[in-house]
Please model this.
Amino acid sequence: MSGILDRDTIGAFCRHTHVELAGAASGPLAGLTFGAKDIYDVAGHKTGFGSPDWLATHEAAGATAPVVQRVLDAGARMVGKTHTDELTYSLNGENAHYGTPVNVNAPGRIPGGSSSGSAAAVAAGLVDFALGSDTGGSVRAPASFCGIYGMRPTHGRIPLAGACPLAASFDTAGWFARDAGLLERVGWVLLADDRVAQKPARLLLAQDAFALAGDTVTGALQPAIGRVSALLGKPQPVTVASEGLSQWFQVFRMLQGAEVWAQHGAWVTRAKPALGPGVRERMQWAATVTASDAAPARQQREGIARRMHALLDNDAVLILPTLPGIAPLMNTPPAESDEFRARALSLLCIAGLARLPQVSLPLAKLDGCPLGLSLIAARGNDTLLLEIARRLEC
Model:
């Protein structure tokens, strides 16, 4: 083993699926290095998906995932594959089979998942940027926990061919960087978009999201909110979910569970994988979700999407906490971990249900640990968010 594996003292990179790829000789990302979450295919190599049983029951990929190829063609060099939570079905980053990457900005605490290795590698300076994926919050959560920038794009903007799916109607390809300028540069490549970013018309403040996060988190985020307000104007308070964000989480949970089992149920039944704690229980629950259970949730989702479209029309931007707290300690008891997960997903599900872009900004700290502030925009306004992030950093 050589290269990144020799320098990786934090357990961010996969030994079992290691692969390096040279980038194009020139391009907008020339000279930069990146890691790719081990859900993305590389031609001639196996994709691990965070599961030894998945690795053992699947063949090598016949083609490289377009999201990987785009950054290679732009000149970036792939130094390795990064760890993911098992089947990407977690927000913690604690993989029972491969371990937990170290969160260098919050020692003793989880890096967040499922894009744990990608976030940890960027935070530790092992790569310039990294590719992750975000279904329920798997870019935004580790970005907040690790104190880096993380972008979830509009659903469907970036092709997901050659990527292991979790729940297709929520899955997106996301990315991390330590500085907003690079986050934007990578975004221009991945989004394949040469449009000039729109100017934000107004700033909205999600009162119910801040209330869910609580006074301590809200207080810690106040200076960051002030920075955004100085750039974009005084925010207008709004209520995102009149039914309550916890109800929106239940809609997300039901739909995700139905899609996860539809996608992977046959393999789980046939292969009987040795799933780790948390993932095992969620998969067992997903197996019980029926089509009749999911149908009302599907209708509710479309109502939520219409609500968010109206709220964010004419280039509005919504400001909210990325998460309801800092990274939990490693090996947090399951009951406590599940309670935090439910509150976290009550915030994270907003963008997922409405298929919206969201960027997490590393603008705050609490108890010495990173705490992210997020911005959400209307569908297709990804570059608007990236430009705001860059301007805030100046």
The longest helix spans residues 245-271. The radius of gyration is 19 Å. The beta strands are 33-37, 77-82, 129-134, 149-152, 172-177, 202-206, 236-238, 316-321, 358-366, 369-377. The first strand starts at residue 33 and ends at 37.
